[in-house]
Amino acid sequence: QEKSCHLSAALLGEDSEISQEQLYELLKYAALGRCHNAAQPSWCRIYHQSHLAGVVVVVLHEMSQLHFYRFYLQFKHLRKVFRHRFTLAPSANFPVSLYGEGTNLKPQNTPQGLTSTSSECTTKSSDLQCDPIIQRYGGKKQGLTSYTLTLEEQKKNDYPIEGSPGCKGYISTECDQQRTDSSPLFGLDCEMCLTAKGNEVTRVSLVDARGQCLLNELVKPESTVVNYRTRFSGITRKMLLPVKTRLSDIQTRLKKMLPHDAVLVGHSLNSDLQALEMIHPSVIDTSLLFARSEGRRFKLKFLAKAVLGKEIQCEKKLGHDPTEDARAALELAQFFIEQGPTKVAELNLEMLLTAEKLAEVSQNKAVLQPQGCGFQEQLNEPPPLSKPCFLDCLQVTGQKPLLLGRQGLDSSGLCQSNLSTSNKQILQRALEDVPLSKFSIIQFSLGPEYLASHLHAGLHEKVRSKLTDMLTIYAGPFEENFCMKSVKKEFGRCGPIQSLTVVTETFQPYVCIQYEVLEAAQLAVESLNGAEVAGSCIKVQRPVTAAMLDCNVLIKELELDVENEGVIYVAGLKKSLTETDLQEEFSQLKDLETLFLPKDLQSGKHRNCCFLKFQKTQSAVNALEAINGWTMNGSELRSRNALAPGHLWKWIWQMNHSNGKQGKHIFYEKMEQLSDSEQDLRKNVKKLDQHIKKLYRSLQNNTLCVVLFPGVNSTHGSQPGLGLMGIKDDEGRSTC
Q1: Phi, psi (deg, nearest 5) at residue 410
Q2: For residue 41, which of 25, 98, 178, 536 is within the disulfide window of CB 3.0 to 4.6 Å?
Q3: Higher-confidence residue: 52 or 262?
Q4: What is the pTM of this model?
């Protein structure tokens, strides 16, 4: 059974702020594993990285943490799916920091003595014993039966097997005769289109041992075509309109054409046989025949050029030619059998691939540099001389990253870049191309009309204003000479107080209390409304403003936020208690994973509250029941479910303590400008969330998905970014 990947990250409080370097560390390890000195990131852990199906990074251009919480209700998908969230330090040049330090491989980075000629790229015989081909097959020539896949190898590589649960209804070729080294070879290749059923065959080619085409037939799929994948399949709607041939017809013809001792040859032939829904007992898979280390595989196009000296799958052609691919796979198998493993190993294919990739990168950069679209040129900075970024390393391992977006993010030639004019176009291209790439960066944008600096400043003020209102409660009425100390003590048991003032504009005195955390304000509303405080039965409520009309909805959604699962807030702690003391006091609580004790970021002193994160949601529910009413060191504890994710606490504190450089008249002017486009902005954010939802649903299981609000760092001010991440599981959610 295939292992599923999962992600572990304890992101609470100060630990939830991640630098650009730490983000790069995560992406590099996810993309490369232990190759190229990639190590597990220091701040989180990916389990079973080798089983990752791919990495997808969604970048929301020029958006910050501010946008996420201003439009929290609109980002319905993001907040419900991703379990891990972190504050991201803003960067003046985000794309470069995302890719890594160096994005310009120089020719001198090529391994010493390496050129493109095969004679200089051959390997010394003393090194051959380490070659994966020699380790698998030995050095001596053998007959073709030595290179056919065993039953276990077929099972391991997802070949259709007689009697397997997933092969119900599959047709056998009935080629059950004993194979010998003189059994005939046949090259097979299929092109598929994406239908409502999945991948279905739309073209089949079969060639004999002399390379002559025996079958080259278009096939009408059973289900409606969702995506023709014309760029790769070469299939168009017009081509399939007159076609009458069905899969069952092709199955019948193949059974008749293949002799009983036939050996089928193909590149990743399992995909073709699965699409054909046919079972064949004897196969040679050239993607496995030309063995590589760590389960990697050479592409057919590269092998055809490096081994046979043939150019196939040319970019000028519309899609792949299955006859050409079937013939190339057949000839590669024949070369391997005739020449033997030693001769193949001496070609040093890994070195040839490295040389090809480095030459391609250098050529792309030479072409792109005069256009003046590079990051360094935009910033008038000299090009970095540091080590290559992980995108270079991906190139060398045969994986070309994909970049889709409006903005010219990549000037290095490292990515399959495609600039689109709208988010909808970007989404359509992503749905088509992301499944074909191991590493993808998809960039969406709200558009320049929503990213102007004055709008961003207004947005900041609006968020701060609403957050202040949510942190504020009014309590009263009190008697004329009430004891302020008693009030402060009672409300202080709910959490740390930012300010406490008496309201004198009313007939009887009221008190305005602003807390430092959302949980404290909510706890005060829930536990003290209708209670007797300082000799008076009081009402506790939040300010009533237009912006606060949806406060209850927002509180409910925050409580249900996936990142708050298993997290509870505890108040009423003595400030003298240390983190060690609390760990000991709460040690009896089952499944306690992390304890976070907030600090005043100026004085460094602990607050009178903490957050507890549990491994299981039910354990958090049980702890909540147990803690309410606890007395710790003479102080009664109060607790509730967490509302503000760990990364948000520090941001709230900073917003509360910012001086507010603009005057009130400027603030209202900016609010007026913002309100004109507020409704459109909400609609666009909602559409953006829907786009990400569609993209996420299309991803394979075990795909790491990272959504980034990069933050803003400009002359108009700085706003931290936000990252959301998770590995998609069978239920379409991100795993812990």
Answers
A1: -115, 115
A2: 25
A3: 262
A4: 0.56
